[in-house]
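Human:
If only I could read backbone structure tokens as easily as an amino acid sequence. I am handing you a single protein, as its sequence and its fold in token form. I hope you can help me see how the letters and the tokens relate. Thank you; the sequence and its tokens follow:
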Amino acid sequence: VEYGLILYSYSSMQTAARDVTRQVAVNTLAIGGASAEIKSRLPTWMRNDAVISVTQTTPANAATNVYTTTVTVSSSKATPLTFFTKAAPFSLQTEVEMKQELPFM
């Protein structure tokens, strides 16, 4: 059950990171609101412990700008049960890179 919850948490991290990065890349969400939006999509037991980083390569040039979103959380925080994860702790991390869409003209 514990590992199933960890897999669910990891899947939630991946989905939230991908979806929110896409929103930022198509200019429907400001980069400043990305972390809060990702946290709102994570399971409640890990929201406060997730470390989220959203960066961009060239903010002044939409033609070459690439957004990178990284979400990291300790395995002991990725599940409400902490039996096996205390014995062998590890970190879960997902990273998404997406090129910025050019503004629609």
About this structure: The mean pLDDT is 92. The longest strand covers residues 66-74. The first helix runs from residue 2 to 25. The beta strands are 51-56, 66-74, 91-99.
